[in-house]
Amino acid sequence: MNQLHWTTDFLLSKGVRADLVEWIALGIDVVLIALVSLVADFLARRILLSVIHALVKKSKATWDDYFFEQRVFRNLAHLVPAFIVHESLDYIFNDVPAAIPFLQKVVVLYVIVLGVSLVNRTLRALENWTGMNEKYANTPIRTISQVIRILAFFGAVIAIISILTGTKAGTILGALAGTTAIIILVFQDSIKGLLANFQIHMYDLVKVGDWITFSKYGVDGDVLSIDLTTVKVQNFDKTVSTVPATAFVSDSFVNWRGMSESGARRIKRNIHIDITSIRHLDEGLADSLREIDLIHDFMVKRQAEIDSNNDKRGIKGASKLNGRRQTNVGLYRKYVEFYLNNHPGIHHDFTLMVRQLQPTTEGLPIEVYCFTNTIVWQEYEGIMADIFDHLYAATRHFDLALFQSPTGADIRSLK
Known about the structure:
The protein is an alpha+beta fold. The protein has three domains: 6-186, no CATH class; 205-262, SH3 type barrels (Roll); 265-310 and 323-404, no CATH class. The protein has helices at residues 6-13, 18-58, 63-69, 72-92, 100-131, 141-165, 169-186, 188-202, 247-250, 257-262, 283-289, 293-313, 328-341, 377-394, 408-413; strands spanning 211-214, 219-226, 230-235, 240-244, 254-255, 265-273, 353-356, 364-372. The strands form two sheets. The chain has a five-stranded antiparallel β-sheet, with no helix packed on it. A three-stranded antiparallel β-sheet has the order 6-8-7. The longest helix has 41 residues, at 18-58. The protein is elongated and about 105 Å long.
């Protein structure tokens, strides 16, 4: 190709010293290539992505929505300016040909990094799409994608080393094969940490700012940093703990991010009822409980249903064991449910349940399962305390007794 050297000729015609011409020409060419890359990137993002976004919205398929969400198409759009810059180097730097090989390597390295990112985003989009498709529910998609990610990353590293050193990829692989055993032996902790770190980011197990609870290591607090071999956590007592990165892959821990993102926090606590205090309603207790607004309508409706059922079955005996009868603990469970449904601090879009668990030596557990409409710790604790203060006090109105182990005062009272 005939080189025009237009920048050099222009500078020489203006009387610029010959030893400065090449450097000034190089600076001008760098500015030009930067402008070309910016314009190409702008056009690719504004035009190409706009067209793709419109097609994704019109499409009835679901896979393209996941690809767009993971920015796969954005990565593809970034390849366009890279290709344009690569092809324009010979024209823009024709007066500084020595810079062209170096800049071509830079563009190729950028494309390699972009390719690895593209593979990662594509696989993540496929994982999300197949995860929502029952057809692929039992296929090891995540395992396959993990292997592909590792191979892509390894291949990219080999390609980058080959480009930077000018060594053939086959030669690099041969040299690595001979030193792999020594490298693994000497740097086994770092390699394990690197692989664990890679899995942490790949599967989004934990990230900076997450609240985690890791009982094995006595950790309960916010993640400060994720390093190669360790994860640093600031506990709520302001102490700082470090946990091996490999532990997040091999051991079980709790990440509260889902709770934080949902805007609701779970309450799951038992009220232990003394079994000896459970009984059928008599007229006095029934009249007293009907004065409670929350369960008045329910009691009237349920009693009418019970009376109708007993009449159909011909129940005539006066014993409360004949036919169906309301119990104080059953009404208490219903009262708790109504109370929670009417509580301003409870999130009503999540599960709300009051259930009876298996009796134990500590009595009959009544489990309260619901979610507060705040995740702020102080507010959450205040709401939960107010609820159980009321529910504990309410047991007396149902003629129920709370269970607790005997204390010293109880034993002394027997003397």
